[in-house]
Specification:
The protein is mostly helical and about 100 residues long. It has four helices and no strands. It starts with a helix and ends in a 7-residue tail after the last helix.
Amino acid sequence: MKKILGVVLAASLVSGCQLMGGGANSSDITNADFKNMGCDEIKSVFETYQESMEMAETGSNLLSIVDLDAGLGEAQEIASQAYNQAATVARPVVKLKKCDFTI
């Protein structure tokens, strides 16, 4: 019963992420062209990615309850590294464009 619940939960999370725009194009933060984006677009990219990471964290916590969290820690680390790499690239652009936020 525990595994069935876990599979149903995992399927729900995956389909939810797909509905929320969690596809490769919207989450490919490391290839975003920040130089050609406006401040609002840059901010939106980081906010959306942060929300995706938070949703993944919630999903990871739920999956760990039913012992289906194998490999999720590594995936979260990769997502965090991608965010940090993109932030390093975007910070000078945000400063140059005099955006009213920081990353």
